[in-house]
Amino acid sequence: MSDPSLQTTLLLMLAGLTAGWIDAVVGGGGLVQLPALVLGFPHAAPVQILATNKLGSICGTSASSLTYYRRVRPDLRTALPMAGVAFLGSLGGAVLGSHIPKSAFNPLILVVLVAVGAYTLLKPDLGSATQLRFAGHHHVIAATAAGFVIGVYDGALGPGTGSFFVFALVGLLGYAFLQASAKARMANWATNVAALAVFIPQGAVMWRIGLLMGGCNLLGAYLGARTAVARGAGFVRVVFVLVVGGFIIRIGGVVLGAWS
């Protein structure tokens, strides 16, 4: 496959920077990065696009996970089991995804996103402070169950995984948005590793552009994580609503045939 032009490469790098920032704050950077790769490589196989996106994303999630850990100190007793089970779920999802038509998921994803967005808007205090809904091993079980389900989804399809992790941690477990974002980045890092473990042996990664985008994604993620920590849970909530709204418009357009 021929290398993209300098202009296309610069636009892809800008997309990686923007995606890294969004992903670090609340998840959903794929809303920017995946379409950019599709436009930049119109003749690439879908697996190449997905694999290259994961390479770029893992650079960002590595940086944001470290930044959140150093500045927010999330409880690893929840974050690590959730990430571990999400890793296993993503492995299974990546295998499952090759046998399921992804177009069948769009209507279901749209319904879930509308429900998530409406629930967040109708509960203005949601995620403003940590009020855990489970205690002890019940808390870990709920976190790992959510991690597994979202991990399978990420391996099989992927769009909005980080945002779904954040919502599960806020809506199901009762974390504030900032704490949820910190834990979500760790879980999303694990699902990216799992997906690459499937894609790299297939030779699907476009390494040159993936590493260029990854470097920009890393910088964006570092800046995004610092912004989220400095601005707090209220800021993260606003970005979360905007990103979910963007997903609804994008996927809703696909379902209604407004664009492919």
Order of helix and strand elements from N to C terminus: HHHHHHHHHH
Q: What structural class should be given to the helix and strand makeup?
A: mainly alpha
- Output the number of helix runs: 10
DSSP strand tally: 0
Protein name: Probable membrane transporter protein
Membrane topology: Multi-pass membrane protein
Keywords: Cell membrane, Membrane, Transmembrane, Transmembrane helix, Transport
InterPro entries: TM_pro_TauE-like, TSUP
Quick rundown:
The protein is mainly α and 260 residues long. The protein has ten helices and no strands.
Would you write up a description of this structure?
This protein has 260 residues and is mainly α. The chain has one domain (6-256). It is 78% helix and 0% strand. The radius of gyration is 17 Å and the shape is globular. The protein starts with 5 loop residues before the first helix and ends with a helix.
Q: Which descriptors would you attach to this protein?
A:
260 residues, mainly alpha, globular
Secondary structure layout plus pairing:
Elements: H1 6-25, H2 30-40, H3 46-72, H4 76-97, H5 106-122, H6 136-156, H7 161-172, H8 177-199, H9 207-231, H10 233-256
Helix pairs in contact: 1-2, 1-3, 1-9, 2-3, 3-8, 3-9, 4-6, 4-8, 5-10, 6-7, 6-8, 7-8, 8-10
